[in-house]
Amino acid sequence: MVDQGQEATLLRRGDADLAAVRSDIMSADLLSIAVLRKSALFLWTTHIPGQKSSRATEWKNLVGSRIAVLNGTSADLALLNVVLSSEGVAPSKVEIVPLGTMDAMAGDKSFNFFATMGAIKSKAAAEMFRSFSRLREAPNFLALESRRLRL
User: Fold this and answer.
1) Torsion from C-alpha of 55, 56, 59, 60, nearest 10 degrees
2) I want to staple 10 with a disulfide (CB 3.0 to 4.6 A). Which of 15, 59, 126, 144 is the partner?
């Protein structure tokens, strides 16, 4: 056991291999891992005019896009940025816009990409996607590669 706040120092000095450290005090040279036990980051798209539907779910298509994030907390936004980077999309190449309701997300036609955090297999998440489908169209989820993510 170490004193609270000393974890990052131990990692930087090489005196620890694993520690729980707040993301706002992590330095860029430390490897970070996001572990979500019962929640997931959902990222989906709708039809993009002028593109074949099979291409709509390719990560490279996010470049230059606006992503609506439902109730995006700072932790949600940080995780989204890590995932974007790990999939080869520089977060600076997209505009991330937090919105408060699914109606606002689905109703704004300037968005073709959407994200939210939610419990896996939750009835609330399933209803949220059904609601989105009624307002817009069925979501096409972007696939994630299983790999180490780096902040």
Assistant:
1) 70
2) 15
Residue 132: exposed, middle, or buried by beta-carbon count in 10 A (0-12, 13-18, 19+)?
buried
Tokens encoding 20: 């729980």
Q: What is the pLDDT of residues 15-73, one digit of tens each?
A: 766 666 655 565 555 554 444 556 778 888 886 555 555 455 678 888 999 999 998 78
Task: Report DSSP letters for the chain, one per residue.
Answer: ---TT-HHHHHHHTS-S-----GGG--TTS------SSEEEEEEE---TTS-TTTTT-GGGGTT-EEEEET--HHHHHHHHHHHHHTT--GGGSEEEEES-HHHHHH-TT--EEEEEEETT-HHHHHHHHHHHHHS---EEPP---S----
Over residues 110-149, the pLDDT tens digits come to: 898 999 888 777 888 888 888 888 888 888 888 766 544 4
CA distance 108 to 114: 11
Six-digit token string for 79? 């995780």
Half-sphere exposure of 117 (CA within 13 A, CB side): 16
